[in-house]
Amino acid sequence: MNHIVCTNKLGTVSYSYQLENGGNPRANQVPRCQPRARKSRKASRPFLTKQFQAYVLFQRFAKIFIGCLAAVTSGMMYALYLSAYHERRFWFSNRQELEREITFQGDSAIYYSYYKDMLKAPSFERGVYELTHNNKTVSLKTINAVQQMSLYPELIASVLYQATGSNEIIEPVYFYIGIVFGLQGIYVTALFVTSWLMSGTWLAGMLTVAWFIINRVDTTRIEYSIPLRENWALPYFACQVAALTGYLKSNLNTYGERFCYLLMSASTYTFMMMWEYSHYLLFLQAISLFLLDSFSLEQSDKVHEVYKIYIFSLFLGYLLQFENSALLVSPLLSLVVALMLAKFFYTSLFLKFGLNMTKNFTMNWLLCQESLQAPSRAFFLRLTQSSVLPFYTLVLIICFFSMLQVIFRRINGKSLKETVTLEDGRIGERPEIIYHVIHTILLGSLAMVIEGLKYLWTPYVCMLAAFGVCSPELWMTLFKWLRLRTVHPVLLALILSMAVPTIIGLSLWKEFFPRLMTELTELQEFYDPDTVELMTWIKRQAPVAAVFAGSPQLMGAIKLCTGWMVTSLPLYNDDDLLKRNENIYQIYSKRSAEDIYKILTSYKTNYLIVEDAICNEVGTTRGCRVKDLLDIANGHVVCEEGDKLTYSKYGRFCHEVKINYSPYVNYFTRVYWNRSYFVYKINTVISFQS
């Protein structure tokens, strides 16, 4: 028996062997020392690889879980914040029902009044029928309120309130505003997710929410008018944008792509049903996708799939919105996108700059609305103080010029890389980035002209700025242009993508968090005793069949708080109602008592309400007071030099009727007044002697 000893890092091993025939050993008979340690390493590699894969999967899952938790928590906290702030601002729970309803002003009062009507109806079907054949709101007019005012949110809210048994737990008004506040939570959650998808880090989502809340005066109108259609609709649009952002990503798997497509389809249709102006906003989105597809920066099939969603939603909306012809003539259905874009911008700007070029009261009155004015300096100052505007500008410039580089490469016939890495520094090659750049430029261009559109643009300013400062690709793109050599650009980009948003977040926390806490601790009060007294008098003294006339905003409050019939409503999408508004507003013009009487009786008016705030209006923009617009339309006064002056032989009606002399007392009898309102009964037996 022979022995051989092998020594290695694992120790010493002895082998025994026996030679055949007792002769000399052959090569294949002697065992060799095998490199056992090396063999052991090779055997352990699959195990180590599985461990590494499990670690990567766990890390990815933890990142997604924490991000989703942060997104949902942000939305819930924002909804709770709105609820607490609303309670503190109006002292809502300590008020009577009438005082609560007065907080709904203008067109908001109309929307909530129909929600109340649905709850009073004996059945849902009967309630819908009464709304679609409504003759108890506007005198001498039967309207389809569901179609004209997009009352689908109220229909859904009333069904949920009764179907869930909430009528035994919570008051209708709290259920209604609770749904709206919940949707606002979904709104900021969707913005969070969009910024997260673009940057790859949920830190960008946190920064988006922080900027959104800090600049909420310019990002939302939820504080001023809860039932507005945009407050119901924009959360669904934000979900659609988030789904579209994910859908456009190049590295999305099949299941993720299918989920984004379904979410985008559902949110697009819901958005279209909630807001009558939704298809205009989708038109801007379609233009962005059209430009994205025109430069072959994304596969055309994805863009065309989005077009199919538009078409399906339009036709389905047409059928369910009582054959709404506005959807069929929507720019979304037009194939000539460039022509429609030019026409849209031309029309928008010409309304905008046509003020005082026409004497038409309705046109000038609409253009004088605050939402159609150019943004004030305070708007840009607020965005700058919260640091969102400077960072947005930086991010937009980098993304825009990077996008131009990609376009020029495509024009010159250079191929684009299928997979863009961080080292490439080409953020403009990502399709979802190109879409958002084009979209925000279009929205921003309109917001620079019409202030009301800032509520569409500013949330995406917050989202795009947060995405940019948290994106290593954006910093890497900048470093590529600067040809940074002293420090490794990839390492510096990764550091800045974490350090910059952290510094911004800490500074925002220090500057604005105390203000938010102060808002929640301060008790505010909505005090309007004159309006409360007016509504109380109407409910106690006026006949049930009485018809009231006055400003559209006041008529909306009367419809909500009393249920009495009115002559006009604060709605701007119906030509007949706009004409009625102009006619009723003549009570503030220099017209005769007989002219005013004929106008009012043509609408079967029983009571006229004159508002002292409109009659003696002094503080608005020059040429935009109601009485100024009426004088221009009626040719009774001229503002500019070189025009002829035309004098009226009658005094201003709202002043003259208060004096109680003939012929005004022949037509109108004052039956109630306080510091703000004067109520006159329209006489049925008239002496026409002046």
What does this protein structure show overall?
The chain is mostly helical. 62% of the residues lie in helices and 5% in strands. It has 30 helices and 7 strands. A hairpin with a 2-residue loop joins strand 1 (2-8) and strand 2. The longest helix has 55 residues, at 36-90. The protein is elongated. The protein starts with a strand and ends in an 8-residue tail after the last strand. Residues 7-23, 25-30, 34-44, 336-344, 352-356 and 639-643 have low confidence and may be disordered. It is a multi-pass membrane protein. Residues 22-44 are annotated as: Disordered. It is found in: Membrane.
**Broad shape:** elongated
Helix content: 55-70%
Mean pLDDT: 83
Low-confidence stretches: 7-23, 25-30, 34-44, 336-344, 352-356, 639-643
Structural class: mainly alpha
- Biggest beta sheet summary: 5 strands, mixed
Strand content: 5-15%
Strand order of the largest sheet: 4-3-5-7-6
Computed Rg: 34 Å
State the separation between the terminal residues, measured CA to CA: 146 Å
Count all strands and give the number: 7
Question: What is the count of DSSP helices, taking H or I runs of 4+ residues?
Answer: 30
